[in-house]
Design brief:
Blueprint lengths: L6 E6 L2 E7 L6 H5 L14 E3 L5 H4 L2 H6 L5 E5 H25 L7 H9 L1 E4 L5 E4 L2 E7 L7 E7 L14 E5 L22 E5 L10 H18 L2 E5 L5 H14 L8 E3 L2 H12 L6 H8 L10 E3 L3 H5 L8 E5 L9 H8 L6 E4 L8 H6 L4 E4 L2 E4 L3 E4 L9 H11 L6 E5 L3 H14 L3 E3 L10
Parallel strand pairs: 2-3, 3-4, 4-5, 9-10, 10-19, 11-14, 11-15, 12-13, 12-14, 15-18, 19-20
Antiparallel strand pairs: 1-2, 6-7, 7-8, 8-9, 16-17
Helix pairs in contact: 4-8, 13-14
Length: 453
Amino acid sequence: MSVTGANYLLDLAGTKVLVDCGLAQGSRFAETLNYAPFSYPASTVDVILITHGHADHFARLPKLYKDGFRGKIFTTVGTRDLMAKAFPDSYSHLAEEAVAENHPPLYSPEDIAATMELVTGVKYYEPIELAAGVTATFHNAGHILGSAIIEIKLKTKNYTRLPDGQELETILFSGDLGNSGSLLMPEKDFPTGADYLVLESAYGGRTHEGKVEREAKFLETLMHVVGHKGTLMIPAFAIERAQEVLFLINKLVENKIIPVMPVFFDSPLAIEMTKVYEQHRSEFNQTARDLFAAGDDIFKFPGLKLTSKVEESKKINDIPGPKVIIAGSGMSNGGRILHHERRYLSDPNSAIIFVGYQVEGSLGRKILDGHPTVKIFGEEVPVRCIVKAIGGFSGHADQPQLVEWVERVKSANLKKVFLVQGEASSAMALAEAIKAKVAVETAVPQQDESFEL
């Protein structure tokens, strides 16, 4: 079981459909998995469906192309636009890793360009034909911009259940389901009628704070930094988490709940992704759309400084506190946040807030788990600052929401729920919770395990 590296192959009456093709992330061991051969010949895949624009769901696509894939790729328009911006950054990190490990790059810029030529952006709720008798429909997952629940229908001769005699079988891939109460995204959809569910379980064993509590925790930590003239570090994923944090600070500043102070948006990728978000503001929830319509640019506020260039990032150290630094990567396994953590983790006047999932083996997870020291750039750094995790900022649904989703999409036809994309403990906890509330069989697949439906 793994939270990252989503990759599922369906053989639908001879048509090979792949759902997601993501990078493994978090630990050195996980990242070596990216170089392992696919467990199927790339050239035999006919169609790929991508649930959303996080690297652990799409960023291994160019390797599949390099290995022989030449079929079609479908995803939402929003996800396509995020992918186009994310690929160069992903390649840069992979190329650095290849040099450090003294092995060839996972793929080339030419592979990326060729892969994007195969991508078609589609609208929500409009079925697309993948092959004769096979269709896919993208529903809104409420996770990040463009995120989707994918419903795949297959006409089959040995199964009849619809009143008009049409012969169909349906499998539903949840992708990553959104956390209710998102500052930006609308509520996730609840498509019904599936025979099988493939359900993410990243937070299958946890319950998030509510919206009021998460904002109160954030404000409490921020005001500690203000009072002690320290630095607040926020490792943030470039997609969604960074934009939500900007939106929240915008609200706190403009309502004069906090004083104006330097807030450094120190992530070139997140800056670019925010531009994509602004282009797709019609997909935001009603509250965010109304604010934009009223003239409030929710991603800008007094004190905000965009630091795209390396020289600008280095100068952040010269600015006295209090100050806030939002930087990638979200799990502290790379990016500019590492430089800031090396400098400020040892400062008791400072704080670090984790607003996204910290996979096992990542530096972020080690800090969160209370390691007294962590190694950054070969240096042992003591952790003396305040360490907070605010699960309510997660883009993932928690256990109660996941169970509710199964309850609401469940129909008389549902035969089995497959729990994926979670650590073993989370998946097993969710399996028990589903069994207690919903009368349906669950399974927790292992790597390369296959099932006949």
